Amino acid sequence: MTIRINEAEPNQPNSGGELIPAGQGQVGAWSPERAWNELAISHVARRYRCYPGETVTLYTRVEVIEPVAGFVVQISLPPHSALKSQWASPNQGEGLPDLVVTGDARYLAWRREAQVSAGEHYDYTTQVEIAQTHRDQLLESTAIVSWAEGEDARPASETAAIQVLAKGRYLKYLPGIYTERDELMGRFLMLFESFLAPIEMQIDTIYYYFDPKIMPADLLPWLASWLDLVLDERWSEEKRRILLSSIVELYRRRGTRRGLQEYLEIYTGQRPTIIEHRANNFRLGPATRLGPGIALGHRNAPHTFTVVMRLPPMLEAEGERAKEGRQKEKERRHKIEMIIEAEKPAHTTYTLEIEVANQQNEPASTQTGINIEMKG
């Protein structure tokens, strides 16, 4: 590593505390109006709250949006910290960064002088040790990247803030004498706090594990079991999340036309038309009586209904792809039937009509596009 000290007076940072490479190792203010399209940067800390003497790891990633002829990455070290180690991903090369000191500011400067291609990314890791302090502090580290130095530089920047606590938070649970005079007790309690803090954080955010929209996908079946629901793993993750979010309302509407429509819409993305039949066919004869017990037509029967769905084809290709598409459409029909069987009133029967639209979004012919089947 090369240590370079700039004896010139450093420029004042802007209100956001962001820095920009200004050539010859100088650090100047970054203007947010300057656009950048070629490179993007992410800069985060492994932990955002720590105590004096602990090691903080900073992770920096540079993503190449457009091909450029190399770039420069500057990672400022937080004030009141000591550099322990640094390394980069293998594609950066074997070179070491420069440690540039400008007044009170210190930063690592990584240089990639070879051509880089769009889609590549470069990772940098920096470890620092937080110095001892008698008061709480908020330390910042800024990472910037630019594809050129000087007037043509087009930088991107991101800042990570780290809160340093001078004493353990558990001191507030002890008598005041320990807070005012016993520094050893404050540092001693930090040990237990470092063990229990991750558990406390998990408890504080446990409600995230019960929100189907953001909880880990692996926990969806577990949460579904609480609601007496078995998720079909063949459904997409998005559909499973929507179903789990809506299942309580669907349970309340179970056995109704609206409940069945909403359930089928979650699976297919299309809202079906449901026609209820409440009477027998009208037939002339000596026993014929006008009234609510008869209806015009030839497919009427009490306690029956018809589900009409207009869906896109599974595959548009011909040959083997068309055969695969027909198989997928059979599987889709089977899943729709399973949903109807589970949601309809037990004493009813139904007719399912699936109309598959063609490539021009027009209904297909009756022979190939509409499947009708009476289910009991």
Write a structural description.
- The chain has helices at residues 176-180, 183-204, 220-226, 237-252, 257-268, 320-343, 366-369, and strands at 2-6, 19-21, 27-29, 39-45, 49-50, 55-64, 71-76, 81-88, 98-102, 105-112, 121-130, 137-146, 156-164, 273-277, 280-281, 294-295, 304-311, 349-356, 370-375.
- The N and C termini lie far apart (79 Å).
- The radius of gyration is 33 Å and the shape is elongated.
- The chain has 376 residues and is an alpha+beta fold.
- It has a 7-stranded mixed sheet, with no helix packed on it. A 4-stranded antiparallel sheet has the order 4-6-11-8, with no helix packed on it.
Topology:
Layout: E1 2-6, E2 19-21, E3 27-29, E4 39-45, E5 49-50, E6 55-64, E7 71-76, E8 81-88, E9 98-102, E10 105-112, E11 121-130, E12 137-146, E13 156-164, H1 176-180, H2 183-204, H3 220-226, H4 237-252, H5 257-268, E14 273-277, E15 280-281, E16 294-295, E17 304-311, H6 320-343, E18 349-356, H7 366-369, E19 370-375
Parallel strand pairs: 1-9, 5-13, 15-16, 17-18
Antiparallel strand pairs: 2-3, 4-6, 6-11, 7-10, 7-12, 8-11, 9-10, 12-13, 14-17, 18-19
